[in-house]
Here is the input.
Amino acid sequence: MAQDRGRSGGRRGGRPFRRRRKKPCIMCVKPRLNIVDYKNLDLLRGFIDEHGKVRKARQTGSCRKHQTQVAKAIKLARNMALVEYTSG
Here is the structure.
């Protein structure tokens, strides 16, 4: 008989595994309010973590199209010294 390691048929805690629902992209839901631009610093700061790095799309819930636009806008804003590179 195989060793029982506390798992029951590949389930967690006896319940079936349920995948989390993906967050909707805020730029797709409200496109007029959330315009991706290097001058829109309030929007861009929501996509930067405490170390100054661009947050992943999994964390922000943005789609691929808007995630690339946000990354380019953050890089441009950093280059123009509107956003800091690190949170020193």
